[in-house]
Specification:
Multidrug-efflux Transporter Regulator, Chain: A, Domain 2, 3-stranded antiparallel sheet, 12 helices, flat
């Protein structure tokens, strides 16, 4: 059986030496056979790296890849993981590139990352950001330009992030308990279980996203209306009444 040194393995699999060592640290790659101070890698390491590359190409995170490689996720879970990855698929860019595209100082972005408002991803051990974050960062900049103070805006964003994460975790747990686990126990073939899981995920992602967006907008408009009716000047009220969404049905029911 052919054995390779780490440099040869990196060349054979088009993977950097640093990435190979990172995979070993993350327990994605088995340790090499050691002969004194020399580490030897074999065909199983080549196959493993090729499988990791294939799964990464489908958008899987390293945590999901590890579970798939270790058999902790079954055959029906792999298409579901692929559907989740596809829904989150995006071009990945560095923080500096994000700052350039969004036209904001990198230092401000670093603050947003520390506060958990811009969520990075790890790709091959490096921190990256979704290209779609550009629109979000620009929207945040517009709030600052409108006069909202940065400390209060960050505090509000943290509160929203915490609440959103709590709701999302509950929603995922509900999907797991009410959809995924019953399908795993069902007397169905792996392909049919996978098909139903993916179909359910895509339907729920689309409908839940629509419901959450609509609900937040409705509540925000209702709160704004309450506030204006309490403290607004006549000219402000006239301008607000001209906007779509003024006078939501729930107010008529309450009064």
């Amino acid at each position: 059986m052919e054995e390779l040194r780490v440099e040869d393995l990196a060349h054979r699999t088009d993977t950097s030496v640093d990435t190979i060592r990172f995979y070993q640290k993350r327990q994605l790659l088995a340790p090499p056979r050691r002969e004194g101070r020399i580490a030897w890698y074999g065909a199983e390491h080549v196959a493993r790296l090729e499988r990791i590359r294939e799964l990464q190409g489908r958008g899987f995170s390293l945590a999901v890849i590890r579970r798939l490689l270790e058999g902790e996720l079954d055959a029906a879970d792999e298409p579901l993981a692929a559907a989740v990855a596809a829904a989150a698929a995006d071009e990945l860019i560095s923080l500096d590139e994000l700052a350039t595209r969004a036209e904001v100082p990198a230092a401000l972005l670093e603050t947003a990352v520390r506060e958990g408002l811009v969520v990075p991803r790890r790709h091959d051990g490096e921190v990256r950001f979704a290209a779609s974050d550009v629109a979000m960062v620009r929207a945040g900049l517009q709030l600052l330009e409108a006069g909202l103070p940065l400390p209060e805006l960050l505090a509000l964003a943290r509160q929203h992030t915490d609440g959103t994460r709590a709701v999302a975790e509950h929603a995922v747990a509900l999907f797991d308990a009410s959809v995924r686990e019953p399908l795993r126990r069902a007397d169905l073939g792996a392909d049919e279980r996978a098909r139903r899981l993916v179909e359910a995920f895509r339907t729920l992602l689309r409908t839940v996203t629509t419901l959450v967006e609509h609900h937040f907008r409705s509540v925000l408009l209702e709160v704004a209306q309450d506030h204006l009716e309490a403290v607004g000047e006549p000219a402000e009220l006239d301008a607000a009444r001209a906007e779509p969404g003024w006078g939501v049905p729930s107010r008529a029911v309450r009064s």
